[in-house]
Write a structure and sequence with these properties.
This protein has a single domain, classed as Jann2411-like domain (Jann2411-like fold). The protein has 4 helices and 4 strands. Bound molecules: zinc ion.
Length: 135
């Protein structure tokens, strides 16, 4: 598995492991993160992150010696912050049948079901409409 994919999977697993979620339902459990997953995410987070560089033109760019590892470090650091945050209760599994994405439900009622209305939500609504129409 490539490093970026492995880190993303580890970060997702860290969130999933700390909070078993039911599709469309809020998480309630703060079980411990499995050791191997915690180690992988901690190691990824330990790498250097991109640094800002201001050019003479006034343009701000971001640089890293190893851009892939630097990006992984950012993802891993965000995952670690999320795992210890109260926002973890707002992490949901997308209710889309073939999706599998996790998302942070920022809706006021906390009842969002899909990662995106443009993709999974729209697809589910079309399927429900088609089902009601009998076809
Ligand atoms: Zn989705």
């Amino acid at each position: 598995m490539r490093p970026l994919v492995r880190c993303r999977v580890s970060a997702i697993n860290a969130v999933r492991a700390t909070s078993p979620v039911t599709p469309g339902q809020p998480s309630r459990s703060y079980a411990r993160t499995p050791s191997q997953t915690r180690t992988q995410v901690n190691e990824a987070a330990a790498h250097a992150v991109p640094v800002p560089v201001l050019a003479a033109s006034g343009q701000l760019t971001w640089h890293a010696v190893d851009p892939v590892r630097a990006t992984l470090a950012l993802v891993a650091r965000d995952a670690l912050q999320l795992v210890i945050s109260p926002a973890l209760d707002r992490v949901r599994d997308c209710a889309g049948a073939a999706c599998g994405a996790l998302f942070l439900d920022t809706s006021r009622p906390g009842s969002r079901r899909w990662c995106s209305m443009d993709t999974c939500g729209n697809r589910a609504k079309k399927e429900a409409l088609r089902s009601r129409a009998g076809g």
